[in-house]
Specification:
Distance between the termini: 54 Å
Mean pLDDT: 88
Order of helices and strands: HEEHEHHHHHHHHHHHHHHHHHHHHHHH
Oligomer: single chain
Low-confidence stretches: 1-10, 402-418
Number of strands: 3
Largest sheet: 3 strands, antiparallel
CATH architecture of one domain: Alpha Horseshoe
Number of helices: 25
CATH superfamily of one domain: Leucine-rich Repeat Variant
Radius of gyration: 28 Å
Structural class: mainly alpha
Helix content: 55-70%
CATH topology of one domain: Leucine-rich Repeat Variant
Length: 418
């Protein structure tokens, strides 16, 4: 048990028949194979997933991979946990069973049948959404029934209908699932579908707008064909809608910023439309929200900043923002290796395009940060970018730094080696 394994060795002995033969740990969800052997579900599923076709204990070939829940043993284990609560043992929760396949199939039919009343279809979608959010097991049941295709048809077959709640509820359910290449291509290649998603980015409901942005990100990221990705990014108001989502206060709708920056990054991977992102205000929004991101999202935001700095419009927009330089300089060596690399790369682009920015960067104290970076354990790309930036800024350093600073001496050694 989490947090209880160490004291168990000293203070209480787990009954042998409560331990999984594979993990040798207390079983949380015991299941029995047709061989009669019982294992913890997670352990035996991992065993089978790695290509094993025999029972781990008996070595008997598995002709049937059905896992039968051992409810009796689980209740015994739970009773034992309760009896040993004073020793720090927590009661294992009763595992939820997967959604019934027949129920999910029936609800999908009910939701997709145009002969049913709209409210009946909506009710079915809401029940499906509740099931899908419960567990990965339930989502696997959905995927086995091609639920993604059914939901996609509901979303786009009802464009312009008198009951838009159906489209919106199906959209909220579809974004829970990953889409296949063919499903992404199907949406990206259909201008009407893409235009509809763009239209939803201006919906009065923030949830609908965020779900639309999430599906756009999935489609752009999952489409293999560059021309289709560019086609999606060229649709009017795509960038404006995504960037507007990112401006939503975190306290009001926390998911908006996370989904927004993920979608913006995917869109900015398309080189030929980056200028559209800049025109829509991406540079200002990214810098304004930079301190609000969690680690993973901060890395994605900084990667987007570096991508946009590769176009002249982007360099100009970032250079014009008063907080760009101090924020990027401060990020170096603070968040993660990736974040540092992206921040230095963005500064290198901005300084290469503007002498005024070079002075600002030096004034912000980048010299010390870069010298620490090139002597640290970080990625080769980050060091290379730092060394290039040091060389570019050499003429902008104040004279007293050149004459008296030990840092400058170290820097001269670095530059001469490149």
């Amino acid at each position: 048990m989490p947090g209880s394994l160490e004291p168990l060795d000293l203070r209480v002995q787990i009954p042998y028949h409560f331990m999984c033969p594979i993990s040798l740990e207390l079983m949380r969800d015991p299941v029995t194979l047709h061989t009669g052997q019982t294992y913890d579900r997670a352990s035996i599923e991992s065993w089978v997933a790695t290509g094993n076709t025999t029972c781990p204990v008996t070595r008997t070939p598995l002709s049937d991979f059905t896992l039968v829940p051992n409810h009796t043993l689980r209740r015994f284990i739970q009773d034992w946990c309760v009896a040993n609560r004073s020793l720090g043992i927590e009661r294992i929760p009763t595992p939820k069973q997967s959604a019934d396949t027949n129920l999910v199939r029936s609800l999908l039919i009910q939701a997709s049948s145009e002969s049913n009343r709209a409210h009946s279809r909506l009710s079915a979608l809401r029940r499906l959404k509740g099931l899908a959010r419960e567990s990965d097991k339930n989502r696997s049941v959905f995927s086995s029934l091609n639920a993604e295709e059914v939901l996609s048809n509901i979303i786009f077959s009802g464009i312009g209908s008198d009951f838009p709640e159906l489209n919106q509820e199906a959209l909220a359910l579809l974004v829970i699932f990953p889409l296949t290449d063919s499903e992404c291509t199907s949406v990206a290649s259909d201008g009407v579908r893409v235009a509809f998603l763009s239209h939803l980015l201006r919906h009065s409901s923030i949830e609908v707008r965020v779900n639309s942005a999430a599906l756009i990100e999935t489609v752009v990221s999952g489409t293999r064909f560059p021309e289709l990705r560019a086609q999606v990014c060229n649709v009017d108001e795509i960038f404006e809608g995504v960037i507007e989502i990112m401006k939503k206060p975190i306290a009001t709708y926390p998911r908006a910023l996370k989904v927004g920056v993920k979608a913006l990054f995917a869109l900015c991977l398309v080189t030929q439309t980056r200028h559209k992102a800049v025109s829509a205000g991406a540079a200002e929004t990214l810098i304004d929200r930079l301190t609000d991101f969690e680690k993973c999202d901060a890395e994605r935001a900084l990667a987007t900043v570096e991508l946009l700095c590769r176009v002249p419009e982007g360099c100009s927009a970032f250079a014009a923002h008063a907080l760009t330089v101090p924020l990027l300089v401060n990020i170096i060596l603070k968040i993660s290796e990736r974040a540092t690399e992206y921040a230095v790369g963005a500064l290198l682009s901005v300084c290469s395009a503007s002498e005024e920015s070079q002075k600002d960067v030096v004034a912000a104290g980048v010299l010390t940060q870069l010298l620490l970076l090139v002597q640290s354990i970080c990625t080769d790309r980050a060091k290379r970018k730092a060394q290039l930036l040091l060389k570019l800024l050499r003429d902008s350093w104040p004279e007293d730094s050149i004459g008296n600073s030990d840092d400058f001496y170290c820097n001269e050694v670095v530059i001469r080696s490149y």
